[in-house]
TrEMBL record:
<protein>
    <submittedName>
        <fullName>Uncharacterized protein</fullName>
    </submittedName>
</protein>
Length: 180
């Protein structure tokens, strides 16, 4: 039951450290795969140690790791020995990158107010309250305005997209329309 004046929906915005770390490793090793929807990480990282690994094996493992990250199919690190070893060697550069990435950020800004206003405007357009829903947005630390829908109420979005109300509304509209 909904109390008058209270939203019947929730949107949670968070970061996924496993996704951030994996994308860092991907870029530091200069891995690529056609199945990979993500742009380069932001801030960018130099290629570190790409010549010290079996690239073919690492790219095969990257595709499996990406599936784990996108669709929650958690496996054991033993299933990706080349990337696990490389990731361990990249721990310190990853820590430096994380500090740099988070430096100057005063916590998530992510436009929570414009998201609230946007969903509330759906009620006006529909002429009724929106149906109850919960939406999860995971921030991907990548360059540009990135958006990926991995489930009906589960999105990945870049900080740049979340901080651009107009660009975000273009991506967000069909998602909310389907849920509302």
């Amino acid at each position: 039951m909904r109390e008058h004046g209270q939203p019947s929906w929730t949107v949670s915005i968070s970061e996924d450290s496993a996704l951030s770390g994996a994308l860092f490793v991907r870029d530091a090793l200069a891995l690529s795969a056609p199945e990979d929807p993500f742009p380069l990480v932001e801030p960018s990282v130099p290629v570190i140690g790409a010549n010290r690994i079996d690239r073919a094996a690492a790219e095969r493992e990257w595709v499996a790791w990406l599936d784990e990250l996108l669709y929650g199919q958690r496996r054991n690190a033993r299933d990706r020995p080349v990337l696990t070893e490389a990731a361990l060697e990249l721990l310190e550069p990853l820590r430096v990158w994380e500090r740099t990435r988070r430096g100057g950020l005063e916590g998530p800004r992510y436009g929570g107010l414009f998201i609230t206003e946007f969903v509330n405007s759906f009620e006006d357009r529909l002429g009724r309250p929106v149906r109850p829903f919960g939406l999860t947005i995971t921030v991907a630390p990548v360059q540009g305005r990135f958006f990926w829908q991995r489930g009906s109420a589960d999105l990945l979005a870049s900080r740049a997209l979340l901080e651009d109300p107009k660009a975000f509304e273009i991506e967000f509209d069909p998602v909310v329309r389907a849920l509302a």
